[in-house]
Fold Adenylate kinase.
Amino acid sequence: MRIVLVGPPGAGKGTQATRLAETLQIPHISTGDLFRANISQGTELGLRAKSYMDAGQLVPDQVTIGMAQDRMEQPDAAGGFLLDGFPRNVAQAEALDEMLREADMKIDAVLDLEVPEDEVVKRIAGRRICRNDSAHVFHLTYNPPAAEGVCDVCGGELYQRDDDSEATVRRRLEVYHTQTEPIIDYYRAQGLVTTVSAMGKVADVTKRAMAALPGS
Ligand code: AP5
Ligand code: ZN
């Protein structure tokens, strides 16, 4: 199955994608995580992406689309994948459709995670991520680690993302509304979108998301 997860920053896309990908046995492909991995490894791609990310702007399509395509062409993604944070504008959605069409494939479902803006701001403000693994995500109030600053899973150091400052979050939300939300209409025209409330317990959101997938 090929799934696209859409939703504002802090909606819980990464949290849900990790759980859904595990249940469905498909890779979780997050362009944000790919950029952050490139930044921590000091690659040229990472250097190019960092200034855009720190400013809360989209990384240019020429960089993003190639990186996403490379990842989707890895052998583990041949049977399906869960995209988190890609596509993020209509040009990326069109490029993805074109790429899949050439391979005689298609998107099966688009899940639109819906959450009010004041909740998003709270989720981002309290988020802490493990330096060893971006799937180890905590929240100071909603999902606090047992020991302050230490990952429960692997003992790694927890940190706050550079782009999680209040001013940058406001810019990311603006970019979401102007550039990313239009892809929901783009996919709605293809009959692919289900809106899923991302409020409430993490496990309940996962259940709703699973129920929204075709064949469930
Ligand atoms: P990216 O990394 O994709 O960030 P984002 O879309 O802004 O989303 P977040 O990672 O902030 O949030 P999330 O929805 O995954 O929430 P999470 O699960 O962590 O992108 C970052 C930047 O990279 C972009 O700004 C751009 O510059 C660049 N970029 C990436 N992709 C690009 C593309 N395609 N094109 C161009 N540029 C691109 O949850 C948030 C917090 O809430 C956590 O602490 C979590 O524990 C908590 N939480 C989750 N669910 C719940 C719940 N149900 N109840 C309570 N707390 C919860
Ligand atoms: Zn960890």
